[in-house]
Specification:
The chain is built from twelve helices and nine strands. It is α/β, with parallel strands linked by helices. The strands form two sheets. The protein has a six-stranded parallel beta sheet with strand order 4-5-6-7-8-9, sandwiched between helices. Helix 5 links the parallel strand 4 and strand 5. GO terms for molecular function: hydrolase activity. This is Amidohydrolase family protein.
């Protein structure tokens, strides 16, 4: 079984995407043997009202019974948008969203913003995972119209230390950290907090080139297959698992990475 914990539908303003509808994603899943995908709507990163994107995703999944059991929808919520509390309630109770994806860089708020802390605490109380992404696209290839820097961060891409402020504030939430493309290094105090946190990282980011070593240092229960599709190719995240040597991961560990860690974390 294969579960992809990092997939999208929708559009990216700066590049033409393929396979970016539920129908096309489903075909891609069939081709490569993926059973279930966690999916969000890219449009929510750019809409002033993110809820419009969540409604689009909901309607697209409802358009065919084939999508219901294969696509797990995550809502994009902007906690500095005035109606975010209503959006959260609607997304969970009416649209059936199973988690949240948050974009502080694109929506321009600090990781210690009181609204973000409140949102993550509400997600914790609703038993919803909260997903943060190191980067959406490689900053070296971004459009000049894409984010370069925002007032609170010195660079367009994150490392783990940039995500740690919210984990420090709400250490008992469930976190997904996706497209891990830069450093996982932390100061000792933060490393101790991170070690105790409930975190799942996907295999799409370039830092996963050393997945074998990360399994030893971070723990084999902390990783799961992810593609970051359609912004990244569909196979690299899978090959990082299948290419692990016997002394890095036995078949039991590979089963954890392919699906079992995701099943346990997502409670499916």
């Amino acid at each position: 079984m294969l579960i992809d914990i990092n997939a999208y539908v929708g559009h990216w303003p700066f590049v033409q995407l393929r396979h970016n509808t539920c129908e096309k994603l489903s075909q891609r899943m069939d081709k490569f043997g993926v059973d279930v995908s966690v999916v969000s709507n890219l449009n929510g990163i750019f809409y002033k009202n993110t809820q419009s994107a969540n409604e689009e995703l909901h309607e697209e999944i409802r358009s065919s019974g084939r999508f219901k059991d294969r696509l797990i929808p995550f809502a994009v919520i902007n906690p500095i948008y005035a109606g975010w509390r209503r959006d959260l309630e609607t997304s969970v109770n009416k649209l059936g969203m199973k988690g949240l994806r948050l974009y502080p860089k694109y929506h321009d708020y600090k990781m210690t913003d009181p609204a973000l802390i409140e949102l993550v605490k509400r997600a914790r109380d609703l038993d919803l995972p909260v997903a943060f992404t190191y980067r959406m696209v490689d900053s070296r290839q971004r459009s000049w119209l894409d984010i370069d820097r925002v007032p609170y961060t010195p660079r367009p891409e994150w490392s783990l230390k940039d995500i740690m402020p919210i984990i420090r504030e709400v250490p008992d939430a469930r976190y997904m950290i996706l497209n891990v493309a830069n450093s996982l290094s932390l100061e000792q105090e933060d490393a101790n907090i991170f070690k105790k946190a409930n975190v799942l990282m996907d295999t799409s980011g370039r830092s996963m080139n050393s997945l074998g070593n990360l399994l030893k240092t971070q723990g084999k229960e902390r990783f799961a297959f992810g593609t970051h599709s359609p912004l990244l190719d569909y196979l690299t995240g899978m090959l990082r698992i299948e290419a692990l040597r016997d002394d890095e991961a036995n078949e039991t560990t590979k089963k954890l990475l392919r699906a079992e860690n995701a099943q346990a974390f997502l409670e499916i």
